[in-house]
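Trying the structure run again after the queue cleared.
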Amino acid sequence: MDVPELLESASLLVPEETATENDITVRDIWAYLVHDEWEIALGLLEELGDGLPLPLAFWEKLADAAEQLRLERSSAWCHWRCSEIRNGVIRADLTLRLAAEGRRTTSIAGQGVLRPMWDIGHLSPAGERAVNIARLWVEDMPSLEPGGRATVRLVPLTPAQWKHVQPGQLITMHEDRSVAGTAVILEVHRPATAMPAG
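Done. Tokens:
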């Protein structure tokens, strides 16, 4: 499919009554599509999708359109949202250790590249701390500096290992044996069950 077909197809998966914070609806998006304003339509569809759970097909179509338009951040975000649907997502308030206190002296890229280890309370068969991997996306910021604090989104590599995680729980981030940061769980969204294709 070409970009207009992908965007039109994705827009059909959004309930008609859905609106963004600025009261933009699917009808408004169709007006942008008619005038070949594909980047604007894509951005508005992403915004609509952030407000409610939409099927995997919606985000896959947006990811394909973003790739064709060579919009790297949009493409990364849409692929990320696909991962959230498949694996679940944990939102947390993360505080990184200061550069003088920890191993990390550079900022963390915000677009889901880093796959740190997390101590979420598991123990190895020998009774030692066991860590679990989850990719990290920093919300509303391109990166997070050492000592910085931000809301992050975690996509677990193995969702079943994160079933016990609850809002309010404190977890620690590791890039080696030392603690790189601490996070308080804000929200937990389990993986979607088989969702209908669009």
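Strands lie at 89-96, 108-109, 117-119, 132-138, 143-144, 149-156, 170-174, 179-189. Worth checking whether this holds up in the mutant runs.
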